[in-house]
Amino acid sequence: MSVTSRPGTVPWTEKDLNLSDFALFLSTMKIKRAYEIVVSTIMGYPVELKQVKVEEVILNRERKRAIRLDAWGEAVDRTQFSVEMQNDTTQDDIRKRSRYYQGMIDTPILKAGKRTKYKKLPPTYIIFITQDDIFGMDHAMYSFRNVCREVPDLELGDGAEKIFLNMSSFNGREDLISLLQYMKRSTLDNPDIPQRGDMLVELDEIVREVKQSEEWEEIEMSIFDIASKAGFEQGEKSGFESGKQQGMQQGMQKGIMALIADNLEEAVPDERIIEKLIRHFDLSRGDAEKYLMEYRKLAQSGVKES
Asked: Where are the domains of the chain?
């Protein structure tokens, strides 16, 4: 499937999607072997997973902000891995976000009661993959553990570690850099990939299989594609730049309303819908909440969004 492009541009096709793109990332990471390859490459040692989940929602019992994990996995030794694809780092502080995720991920593990021991908490790795270097030190990987300020060699040993991966750097292990560059441009022909090891080749095979699956054909008709096509076509018909911008905006609004409608039909919680709007349409949280509120008003008044 391809989307009509503006004059002078190459038409968009599904081949342009990379593993760093949200839809392809989720569709691939739900496959356990693919997630094992990604986590094993990041950690630098083989990781055998017992289960994986994508878009896992963890609710806050105090009705505060919930979290939605892009990809979560539990190893056979109970170690937890949360891998988040964060292409836009300008909307919020992902360092503090990692702190919030850590606490929320641990919350469901321990049952209530005096017999529950904190020593039963498993090791947990919170991993964020970014396009940009949020620390500005030109490293492909930044990993953090809690250590004593007075005795730097003394680790707290709480089993929690946060890892931030930077696609813009080539300073790090070759297999890790190869994975990050593959995520950035997902083809083995990518000249920025320094090492095409067995695991990366296997991951590429899985990605290509995903793109050829029936499920992926449905994903190709995603809200983003529909909105982009509608916007570009309406803009081109006007013959003016202002018409293009207006058409794109109208197409985007139709896509937003369609996404909200589909998710409400599936009884998706409001918090998760808002997160999807922010991610898919690059909205602020306030704008996402306004669109959701606007849709509810339209639905209650019986007005159908055209």
From this structure: 15-215, 222-299
